[in-house]
Design brief:
heterodimer, A: about 180 residues, Alpha-Beta Plaits, four-stranded antiparallel β-sheet, B: about 600 residues, alpha/beta, six-stranded parallel β-sheet, 20 strands, binds flavin-adenine dinucleotide, binds thiamine diphosphate, binds magnesium ion
Chain lengths: ~180, ~600
């Protein structure tokens, strides 16, 4: 039993991972507002992607992956909605079965047998080869985060020099739009 | 019809177009063009404060007592940083403000220029919204938008940071047709089916209680009037937060007094035992709920709030209605009147009887004295001698603030200006100045503590300059009393650094500023001294020497539930060892 004037930590509810899509005015400082909200209120960001999606209207779309209990996720959504430049907040996880994709660039170094092995694995994962030298490759892989994780794990055995990931872009299925 | 003018002139023109009559500020290099533009007109009157924190609190008092947006003008760098406490105060108490800050010229931003600070960065977390104006073309829109954002939805402070080159630049000004924001549209009307469900729940309640808050005051006079109508129609008891005092008249028999940490016994017991709680424009603050898992365990809860993030934030409610208090209350009234089966008044009779027994405990009774002035007595007398003048009361922060909330009685909204959420010592005097600016002929009193008043004492000079007859009524206990009380409860009466050492002579201080000083330490002379204060036509510092060791009760100690209040030593629970009441965990979490 807590002896507090402040909120008891919600003991029973389990944190879950949610993907949020947020439409915002693409004005200076908007990313700082969103990121500052997460740090200021103690929420965590697992991944964040942002880019202007409607140039004429200067509207950007952010995709944020975060974890929290149901009550915390509800707060995050309401708090985001409270930011003045935010137009809409959609919880793709609650809507169910959204498409989530991530792009990774993976640089693999090595010689001899390792090289052909790397190429075989890349082909199996459907990765594209963007650059090749005598002792390196740069692969591009687009897929669900889990696929990318698996690809990186396998390649790590062969000698990964560098990884760059975009974070998740997401969208709901069907005709309905944000 | 658009006009060509400088950015600085646009600031003043936009204020005029918004109907702004008063702006509180302090000049400096980065706002000189705006001060120059102000010089050539007299529609917007400037009140020169003595510290930028004072400007913001004055604007808060002005806004809270008048329902208008408060306006502030400060320079870059230290001017802006001095305003931070006031902005944070306004954010936590939902006070609508527009604060214009000067900024170094655009091409110098980021170069650590003289008096540069990242104002939008610093104020991002203590404003509802803020703007850095990069071009004079954007300025008219941003200025009007700022007023819209400050006043609509859940009110709050908005900062507009204007670089000096933008103030000099010439551009086109046109008064916008509407000053709305392109996408920000707060929801005003509540969901009718939820309102119907809420009224159903209310009608079937056996132990109902209304719990109203600052949102009713924010919403405006109509909301207070509708709240009164609904409460009287239902016959249900009502309590309110510190921020909501005055929305429901304290003289009414259905009124239970304030609830929460220093609330009345009857209000807290009613909240704890009720079966239906109707929360209107309050936010389940931790000073209200006490221990969360013991908060009103058996009630169904209805929550009306304009800010969706307030609903289910601290306490899960059964029916959350997003909307403006006035609009939702109007719909609630309509639904109540349309009920097929009128609730039987007898159904709540046992509940009202129970409340009567709680009231009989007379939790605000205190031990009087013939030799020293009890602080509670001082507030009671101040109330008795001023109530016919419809006074406006501001406070500082501490015991005196709680005694004012308990013993002063408010019959109308907008009469009570206090720093609730942030608890800012030094709020009261500037807030009184702002209040007096909005109500030139009214009696305005800052109920103060001797420690708090020193935090913005310099504003006495502002009061004298503008002939603002504010009355500073200091409950001088020579202690940071609230701190001393907590030390008594939590830290074995080790009064570490809470004694108010080397106090100034407040009577001489008043005179030094050009005001009047009055001192009183004799209960028998108190009434005459208070009358002398009221009758004096200028600012007064009243040094009321009160009992030093008095504690503020009732009190819900940390880690306890609403039904575990500490009462004063007049009640049956007398002789409790208050030093042992709060356990280790509670001590860590106050
Ligand atoms: C020393 C000290 C002791 C304190 N002790 C107590 C105590 O014993 N009891 C107590 O009550 N407080 C106490 N407080 C104050 C406390 O900290 C909070 O400030 C206060 O309880 C909050 O009041 P509120 O819930 O009415 O919310 P406010 O801060 O007034 O918030 C208003 C709520 O209404 C909503 N709202 C705003 N406008 C509208 C609208 N138009 N329509 C609908 N909703 C709207 C807002 O979104 C918000 O949720 C104390 C403070 C100090 C400094
Ligand atoms: C700016 C600020 N600093 C510190 C505090 C912590 N604090 C709360 S009450 C208090 C003491 C106030 O003393 P006084 O003004 O004499 O009022 P009293 O409690 O004696 O009535 C202090 C230091 C605060 N609320 N605000
Ligand atoms: Mg004191």
């Amino acid at each position: 039993m807590t002896q507090s004037h402040y909120s008891d930590a919600p003991a029973s509810s389990i944190p879950a991972r949610h993907t949020l899509s947020i439409l915002v005015d693409n004005e200076p400082g908007v990313l700082a507002r969103v990121a500052g909200l997460f740090s200021g209120r103690g929420y965590n960001i697992e991944s964040l992607t942002v880019s202007e999606t409607e140039h004429e209207k200067h509207v950007s779309r952010l995709t944020i992956v975060t974890t929290g209990t149901a009550m915390v996720i509800e707060q995050i959504k309401h708090q985001l909605d409270r930011l003045i430049p935010v137009h809409r907040v959609i919880d793709l996880t609650v809507q169910g079965d959204a498409i989530e994709r991530e792009l990774a660039l993976v640089k693999v170094t090595g010689r001899g047998e390792q090289r052909s092995e790397a190429l075989r694995i890349a082909a199996a994962f459907g990765a594209r080869t963007l650059d090749a030298t005598l002792n390196s490759f740069v692969f591009e892989l687009t897929g669900a985060s889990e696929d990318i994780e698996r690809f990186i794990r396998v390649m790590a055995e062969l000698g990964i020099a560098e990884v760059s990931r975009t974070g998740i872009a997401a969208m709901s299925r069907g005709a309905e739009a944000l | 019809m658009s006009e060509t003018m400088s950015g600085a002139e646009m600031v003043i023109k936009a204020m005029q177009d918004q109907g702004v009559e008063h702006i509180f500020g302090y000049p400096g290099g980065a706002v000189l063009p705006i001060y120059d533009a102000m010089f050539h007109q007299d529609k917007v009157k400037h009140i020169l404060v003595r510290h930028e924190q004072g400007a913001v609190h004055a604007a808060e008092g002005y806004a809270r007592s008048s329902g208008k947006v408060g306006c502030v003008l400060v320079t870059s760098g230290p001017g802006a940083t001095n305003a931070i406490t006031g902005l944070t105060d306004a954010l936590l108490d939902s006070i609508p403000l527009v604060c214009i800050t000067g900024q170094v010229p655009t091409h110098l931003i980021g170069s650590d220029a003289f008096q540069e600070c990242d104002t939008v960065g610093i104020t991002r977390h203590c404003t509802k919204h803020n703007y850095l104006v990069r071009s004079v073309e954007d300025l008219p829109r941003i200025l009007h938008e700022a007023f819209y954002v400050a006043a609509n939805g859940r009110p709050g402070p908005v900062v507009v940071d204007i670089p000096k080159d933008v103030q000099f630049a010439m551009g086109q000004y046109e008064k916008p047709q509407s000053n709305q924001h392109k996408s920000y549209r707060p929801q005003m009307d509540g969901d009718r089916s939820k309102i119907r469900a809420a009224v159903e729940l209310m009608a079937n309640a056996k132990k109902p209680v209304f719990y109203s808050g600052g949102g009713v005051i924010n919403s405006g006079d109509e909301a207070s009037a509708l709240l009164r109508e609904l409460v009287r129609l239902t016959g249900y008891p009502i309590t309110s937060t510190l921020m909501g005092l005055g929305a429901y008249p304290a003289a009414d028999p259905q009124w239970l007094g304030m609830l929460g940490m220093h609330g009345t016994y009857e209000a807290n017991m009613a909240m704890h035992d009720c079966d239906v709680m109707i929360c209107i424009g309050a936010r389940f603050d931790d000073r209200i709920t006490g221990r969360l898992n013991a908060f009103s365990p058996n009630s169904k809860k209805i929550h009306v709030d304009i800010d969706p993030s307030s609903i289910n934030k601290n306490v899960r409610v059964d029916i959350g209605i997003v909307g403006d208090c006035a609009s939702v209350l109007k719909d609630m009234l309509a639904e109540w009147k349309a009920l097929n089966k009128k609730p039987d008044p007898k159904a709540i009779a046992p509940w009202l009887n129970e409340i009567t027994t709680w009231k009989a405990k007379d939790c605000l009774a205190y031990r009087g004295s013939k030799t020293t002035i009890k602080p509670q007595y001082a507030i009671e007398r101040l109330y008795a001698l001023t109530k016919d003048k419809d006074p406006y009361i501001t406070t500082e922060v501490g015991q005196h603030q709680m005694w004012a909330a308990q013993y002063f009685r408010f019959e109308s909204p907008n009469r009570w200006m206090t720093s609730g959420g942030l608890g800012t010592m030094g709020y009261g005097l500037p807030a009184a100045i702002g209040t007096q600016m909005a109500h030139r002929d009214s009696l305005v009193i800052d109920i103060a503590g001797e420690a708090s008043i020193l935090m913005n004492m310099q504003e006495m000079s502002t009061a004298v300059q503008y002939r603002l007859p504010v009355k500073i009524f200091i409950l001088n206990n020579e202690y940071m009393g609230m701190v001393r009380q907590w030390q008594e409860l939590l830290h074995g009466s080790r009064y570490s650094e809470s004694y108010s050492e080397s106090l100034p002579d407040f009577v001489k201080l008043a005179e030094a500023y050009g005001g009047k000083g009055i001192r009183c330490s004799d209960p028998a002379k108190l009434d005459d001294a208070i009358r002398e204060m009221i009758d004096y036509p200028g600012p007064v510092i009243f040094d009321c020497l009160v009992e030093k060791m008095e504690n503020c009760f009732p009190m819900i100690p940390s880690g306890k539930a609403h039904n575990e209040m500490i009462m004063n030593d007049l009640s049956d629970d007398a002789g409790v060892e208050i030093g042992n009441i709060i356990d280790q965990k509670g001590k860590a979490l106050v």
